[in-house]
Amino acid sequence: MQITRPLALAAVLAGTFGATAAHAVEAGDWLARVGASHVSPNVSSGTTPNVAGGEVDVDSDTRISFTIGYMLTDNIGVEVLGALPFEHDIVGAGSLAGAGKVASARQLPPVVSALYYFQPTATVRPYVGLGINDTRFFDVEETGVLAGDKLHLSDSWGLAAQVGVDFDVSDDWFANASIRYADINTDADSATTGAFEVEIDPTVISVGIGRAF
Predict the structure, then answer these.
(1) pLDDT, tens digit (0-9, with 9 covering 90-100), for 147-188
(2) Which residue of 65, 66, 133, 150 has the fewest CB atoms within a 10 Å radius of its CB?
(3) In what order do the strands lie in the sheet with 194-199?
(4) pTM above 0.85?
């Protein structure tokens, strides 16, 4: 999937609703959004010390997501991103490429960001954001060559950046599309593989609907 597609869709829909009166975003507004987010890992795996040349890859997943934001000024806001837990298959790569799926894990990646709106009074409101993600891995299930083993995945703190756009569909309701990049690294360890680092660093594409209060 090309990461520009959601923003291109937003631009098309913005033209469709171009006649809608703009809802000015201003200091003191609460902004709530709900939709779907697709997490697409950009994996760089360390090699497994116990299996020469062994690496892993991490599959994508899509879940319901939501944000709640508050405007501190007309241009600057803060936002918290949440979602239903994402579940990712972990598959062998490198010399483990023939192993197929070796585990699955669920993760929650809450993100707290500061946002800057370039045109808070316009019908179409592009913004950028920078924040911190706190990713927690849980419900790890081993399979294949790791069946009967215990795979541990450490939690991760890292930066998160985003670009997005809101566009009005009525006085209080708006549609949204955004693209995020998150710095997520985990230390993986099992008796079979030994300890190694996995840089997941996903691109997160979100679309949804929101309301201002």
Answers:
(1) 999 999 999 999 999 999 999 998 889 999 999 999 999 999
(2) 150
(3) 44-45, 194-199, 185-190, 152-153
(4) yes
Nearest to 149 by CA among 198, 184, 99: 99
| Residue labelled with tokens 């399979």 | 143
Distance CA 164, CA 16 (A): 18
69 token code pair: 């934001």
Average pLDDT, the chain: 92
Give the largest Cα separation in the chain, rounded.
63
CB atoms within 10 A of CB 144: 15
Domains of the chain, each with CATH number or no CATH? 5-212 (2.40.160.20)
Torsion of CA 90, 93, 95, 100, to 10 degrees: 50
- First and final CA of the chain: distance in angstroms? 33
Is-contact 156 13, C-beta < 8 A?
no
